[in-house]
User: Fold this.
Amino acid sequence: MTGPVQALRSPSGLDAGPGVADVRLEAVTKRFGDVVAVHELTLDVHRGEFFALLGPSGSGKTTCLRMIGGFERPTAGRIWLAGTDVTEVAPFAREVNTVFQDYALFPHMTVEQNVGYGLMVARVPKRERQERVEQALATVRLNAFGSRRPGQLSGGQRQRVALARALVNRPKVLLLDEPLGALDRKLREQMQVELTLLQRDVGITFVFVTHDQDEALTMADRIAVFRDGRLEQVGTPEDVYDRPETPFVADFIGTSNQAAGAAAVAVFGSEGHFALRPERIRVLAAAGAPGPGEVAAPAQVVDVVFAGATVRRVVTLDAGPTWVVTAPAVEAAAVPGPRRGDRVLLAWSEDAVRRLG
Amino acid sequence: MDGGQGLVRPASTWLYRHTTARLLALLSLPVLWVVVAYLGALATMLLAAFWTTNSFTGAVEHRLTLANFRTLVEQPVYRSVALRSLGVAALVTVVDVLIALPMAYYMAKVASPRARRLLVVAILTPLWASYLVKAYAWRVMLANGGVVDWLLAPFGTHGPGFGLTATIVTLSYLWLPFMVLPLFAGLERIPDPLLEASADQGARATRTFRSVVLPLLFPALVAGSIFTFSLSLGDYITVKIVGGTSQLASNVIYDNITTGGNLPFASAAAFFPILVMVGYLVAVRRTGALKEL
Assistant:
């Protein structure tokens, strides 16, 4: 694996230092007619980072990626790549490459021709081109498929060809638009691991768009959470999961039990907006006693759902809100837990509660 | 199962169970038409090419001979008419490709969906007007002192007058929709991300056109050129209206039927466009570009 990977390593990746901005969006706005897709967005992606743009569909994340690639021009604001203002630079002149959502492989070319296209356009001599194409195909373990057409490959193989085609040009930044969206679940999980390893090996900055929060949490070094064309929060997976800054982030990343207003006063003893992760809550018998430093609230089980690795209980608190509580399934099997209709006592440690405002 | 429904709709049920009968009911009429009317007439015509006419009475003699073909090959006038017809058909095709490509590209890739619908209608509308009216309109425009002369006067030149150039211009106009529509459909089938991927790989517009658009558009180009080429090859009216004294291959056929009264010779002359089109299709097939269809 080391040989081909070395060859793909970006020259700029070698002198990578932490904190160097490879991609910078500066107060970028994009309007399509009356619709504001991205609103005065400012964002730094550091060199060598695996960066996720996460958000529901229509939140502006793909538009952002397309502006970095040069396929959309911002209505206002500047875009910088490795310290150069590229706002007015055409896509073919930018040192970025994109893995498109449906891979966009050229159907009339073989896998080798697809991967070698950028090198051919750049007039790289034929011998060097062949070597680099071979190395790129080796990196994605597709050496044996060079003479096939994209139509003769499976979805996962096409995805890897698209990856090789993008990496063979040694871009400064690799953009990935929902790269795993078209794959089935098993393959997606496998590719998540492969992509992470690949990124670490080639040392290029990866910016990828996803609406799948699991994907963002597993793969990214940092995540930017989008909502309606604005940034809700930027941070490490731990930051956005454990320390969400807004109710939207708390709800969009994982599941959150939230309480505000009167319910917050009743459950948490104070005005404000609170969030609590389902796995941080213990379910005790109605007569049980909470541990030291724990807060408790009486509730009734509305539903019990077995989800393989976990058991999910829907409970209605006496104070009003309906919450979800999850527990590992092993535990649930050993001790038959509370069933539908049972009265229970919920207990959680105070530091598990996140105050959102 | 087959009780209730079967009693209510016996014919439908019977057809449902008899697949062959269903196919026969669907296809017998069109097959009959194609075999008897279309292929029958074609076969009669091709057979007639090997007959001859009595030089005194003009009556058709049903005796097989290659005399008609010998005349066609040996007389220099027919050879030059054939080459002229090929040249006109080829030029009309080239002109149509050059005009239709940007139009189709704009329609398929640039225009808004609303503008696209309007443009398709605008392309199709002239097909509703009579062929003769359009040809005569060009005759008026190309006439001495006509619109074309007037437009070109400021540039110190004048229109081509009636002749082969006028024929090519008029035929290009007449068959343009048959080139625009296949190219439009072909371009619409090329996904936008492919063009973006090409730009992403560093390719400028010309390179993208050459390496991505053109190969994928080739089947559509072939389809369009078959229309413009064969329609031009078969035309004998336009050249009579705006062609001055020029003669094309189809005039030979037409004149031999009407004034010459020599149906066998006209049939033999009709072999020429058929052979050219078969040759063209075989050549295109050889390139392998149609395999991607």
Q: What stands out?
A: The radius of gyration of chain A is 24 Å.
